[in-house]
Specification:
Helix content is 17%, strand content 29%. By secondary structure, it is an alpha/beta fold. The protein has one domain: Ribonuclease Z/Hydroxyacylglutathione hydrolase-like (Metallo-beta-lactamase, Chain A), CATH 3.60.15. InterPro entries: Metallo-B-lactamas (IPR001279), Mito_Persulfide_Diox (IPR051682), POD-like_MBL-fold (IPR044528), RibonucZ/Hydroxyglut_hydro (IPR036866).
């Protein structure tokens, strides 16, 4: 499958401007998201779920857009690719890696549910969405007069478009118009909304018993990269850097 269409926009509200890009890594079908406050003099930016193989592309885009990368974040310890956060830290001094405390992984900042991640006048809220892994979190753009509306939810593998990587359904307490941006897509989708997934997600519209049956019978192959990716991602991709730099 070729690269799906990806989304990008800049939003202008009374006093803030969210710059947003959705980027794709085709080997693992992973989405990386770039967010920045373009109205702030420093143009602070963050990356969600960067992949080691596409770090050069992401950093080049950040340079082209005149942004200052401050955070390289993960929604969880990925099993199918090595995170780009460790590599980014070696290339951009001052960048802080971020992951949830519950993940058990190493990072500069270990976040917990309810925490806020500030970039300029904008912020992300941390929500616990365990299930796919223990420490999975969803990052949701802030709620408030200066924040982007509708809100954007970066769901990692908890909620995929018309699918899921196992979830506790907390994402569905968000307003129905919230845009859903997952960490992966295997079918060519790039964005959905909470309301759309409540109505049409073929797994999450079923009762608990049927849901369990679906998930127990997915018969997914053993992820190709899992034995390399998980140990590397437990240290935010920082181990064995000499062969990558
Ligand atoms: N073939 C891929 C792995 C595909 C896979 O298992 N994806 C995970 C999320 S990444 S760990 C998943 O939960 N998928 C749910 C689904 O319904 O596909 C590989 O070998 O890397």
């Amino acid at each position: 499958m070729g690269s799906p269409e990806t989304t990008s926009f800049s939003s202008q509200s009374s006093s803030s401007k969210l710059l947003f890009r959705q980027l794709f890594e085709k080997e693992s079908s992973t989405y990386t998201y770039l967010l920045a406050d373009a109205s702030h003099p420093d143009r602070p930016a963050l990356l969600i779920d960067p992949v080691d193989k596409t770090v050069e592309r992401d950093l080049s885009l950040i340079k082209d857009l005149g942004l200052k990368l401050i955070y390289a974040m993960n929604t969880h310890v990925h099993a199918d690719h090595v995170t780009g956060t460790g590599l980014i830290k070696t290339k951009v001094p001052g960048v802080k890696s971020v992951i949830s405390k519950a993940s058990g992984s190493k990072a500069d900042i270990l976040i917990e549910p309810g925490d806020k991640i500030q970039f300029g006048s904008l912020f992300l809220e941390v929500r616990a969405t365990p299930g796919h892994t223990l420490g999975c979190v969803t990052y949701v753009t802030g709620d408030g007069p200066d924040q982007h509306q509708p809100r954007l939810a970066f769901t990692g593998d908890a909620l995929l478009i018309r699918g899921c990587g196992r979830t506790d359904f907390q994402i569905f307490t968000l307003p129905k118009e919230t845009f859903v941006y997952p960490a992966h897509d295997y079918k060519g989708f790039s964005v959905s909304t909470v309301g759309e997934e409540i109505l049409y997600n073929p797994r999450l519209t079923k009762n608990e018993e049927t849901f369990k049956g679906i998930m127990e019978n997915l018969n997914l192959a053993y992820p190709k990269m899992i034995d390399i990716a998980v140990p590397a991602n437990m240290v935010c991709g920082l181990q064995d850097m000499t062969s990558k730099v």
